[in-house]
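B., you asked whether I could sanity-check this one before it goes into the benchmark set. Here's the sequence:
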Amino acid sequence: MAQIAILPGGCDTLNYTQVLFEMPYQPGATVYEIIITSKDNPAGNISAKTGKHYFIATSGLHFNNTYHWQYNCYDGKGTKIYTSPTGTLHIQGTWQADSNRYRNRIIVNDSLKITPGYILLDNGSIMNREGEVLWTFPKGKFGTVRDLEFTKEGTLTFLWDGHCYETDLRGNILWRSPDSALGYKLTDYHHEFTKLDNGNYLCMARRIIPGDNSTVFSIVFETDKHGNTQWLWDEKQYYSHETNFAGSHLNAAYYDAKEKRLYVSNRDLNSIARINTHKAMIEYSLGYDYHNSSITTYYPQDEFGRQHAVSMLDNSDLLLFNNNYPGKTSSVIIMSQPMGKIAPEVKWEYIFHF
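And here's what the prediction gave me:
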């Protein structure tokens, strides 16, 4: 997680506990020794030797602690040939990182099958699989957000205060969503924000058109970093417009860039639809009959309800969180996609017995 290097000398303040220390190359050096001492916890001092020009501290550093650090260089005979200036590092924590006030309990069902990785919480924190908080927003920056995700570049994306943001680990803003797209005024981005593999962004927002006071609908679109819209899908165009229609509650979207297909989840309709973004058409719907559209293939379903977080696996199966209908238990479902007259079927389900 330590994507930003800490250089020797000077003073730095961080908001995360996994840190990349950079030790610039020294001629003749074959071994680099780093020494990290804790002003607040002398028992937590760290010392390590490596043949590389950097050291990643994945454990041993803690929030609300101050550290001093420097490195020594040794030649092939073990003779010390250089000592760096001493640097000071303070790791500042917010309330999410205060274990005296806020604790995380991780329940492991099978310790032999547990995999390494991070858990990202919308309260503005990232923890490991042991429940230890490793990162929070810096004090005074953002806070409780929505859809907090890592990108492949090591940055973070999330929704906050009605807009989409991409930041570095220190909370510096790298990108913010546009205020409009193709004639739509966008003041309320919600639920879904993902940075795509091509560097563009998948966004979901409520559609606002001047003079249009009808039922609230949403749009899903792809935009580049300059705010140029690549394609846009407006859900209002595909509903029956019945007088009793109160909205769909669009709450998730997944984009298959290779096939140019968009998968959307409508919570209040208990349905998932697949859209061909190249042709701007709905290819099929699971659970809701878009009967105003002759191009839609409709598959009734009662396997899931009030669902969230639809996505597609490598084998093209659909993965979703089934909140389920009143009186029924929530679950995670993997189901096949329909093909012609072959209806989808549930291939795997994990039921939450609580």
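One thing to flag: The chain has no helices and 31 strands. Otherwise nothing jumped out at me.
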